[in-house]
Amino acid sequence: MSDRTGIFAGDDPFALARDWLAEAEAREVNDPNAIALATVDEGGMPNVRMVLLKEIEADAFVFYTNYSSAKAAELEQAGKAAFVAHWKSLRRQIRVRGTVEREEGPQADAYFASRSLKSRLGAWASHQSQPLASRASLMAEVARVTAKHGTNPPRPPFWGGFRLRPTEIEFWADGAFRLHDRFQWRKTAQGSWEVRRLSP
Ligand SMILES: Cc1cc2nc3c(=O)[nH]c(=O)nc-3n(C[C@H](O)[C@H](O)[C@H](O)COP(=O)(O)O)c2cc1C
């Protein structure tokens, strides 16, 4: 007998995550889809940075970045990552851990094409995570790629998505006197999900 009701109800953690994000989109001042993406480098040293969560699929979460960045090297070396979303307006968080793989097919092309022209050119111009001499040299690179690619730049080969397939998803909501509610979903060896309440 479960007491998982109200905002935690439902049999599909991805549908639940979509519902919570939709609520955050109506409430948060900026970037409701911002997530803190955690990786480890080859020495086991953790690293974390914000990225934007762009798609919640039937069994995965997708974000986009530069494949030459520090995060991409860490994602590809470990094949695993975690992220947390925290919505201050809702006083809720979602934590996710799992395996990662690239999304560099038509879906990445379509998302790239949906971005503004300046953002598409910016993706071409930025050698993300590499040392940069000055702001002026970045703007010179923007001018160079603008002259080269014009108004219809293709998706750069060094830019695309990562798909995180979770093995664990936790939904957390603030409770009075720090007696918060936590429900952790875990993928079983058979591929189904089991869910349990955790102590705050
Ligand atoms: C709210 C917010 C959203 C961001 N979204 C992205 C994103 O979707 N993709 C991305 O590559 N960087 C994004 N960034 C920049 C990253 O936090 C980071 O500076 C950059 O990706 C380089 O990280 P790395 O050196 O660990 O690879 C975002 C930053 C903030 C503050």
TrEMBL record:
Pfam families: PNP_phzG_C, PNPOx_N. Gene3D superfamilies: Electron Transport, Fmn-binding Protein, Chain A. It is an enzyme of class 1 (oxidoreductase). Its cofactor is FMN. The keyword GTP-binding does not apply. Substrate binds at residues 54, 111, 115, 119, 178-180. NCBIfam families: pdxH (TIGR00558), PRK05679.1 (NF004231). Transmembrane segments: none annotated. Pathway: Cofactor metabolism; pyridoxal 5'-phosphate salvage; pyridoxal 5'-phosphate from pyridoxine 5'-phosphate: step 1/1; Cofactor metabolism; pyridoxal 5'-phosphate salvage; pyridoxal 5'-phosphate from pyridoxamine 5'-phosphate: step 1/1. Binds 1 FMN per subunit. This is Pyridoxine/pyridoxamine 5'-phosphate oxidase. Belongs to the pyridoxamine 5'-phosphate oxidase family. FMN binds at residues 49-54, 64-65, 71, 93, 128-129, 172, 182. Residues 159-200 form the Pyridoxine 5'-phosphate oxidase dimerisation C-terminal domain. The keyword Flavoprotein applies. Keywords: Flavoprotein, FMN, Oxidoreductase, Pyridoxine biosynthesis. InterPro entries: Pyridox_Oxase, Pyridox_Oxase_CS, Pyridox_Oxase_N, Pyridoxamine_oxidase_dimer_C, Split_barrel_FMN-bd. GO terms for molecular function: pyridoxamine phosphate oxidase activity. Homodimer. Residues 25-147 form the Pyridoxamine 5'-phosphate oxidase N-terminal domain.
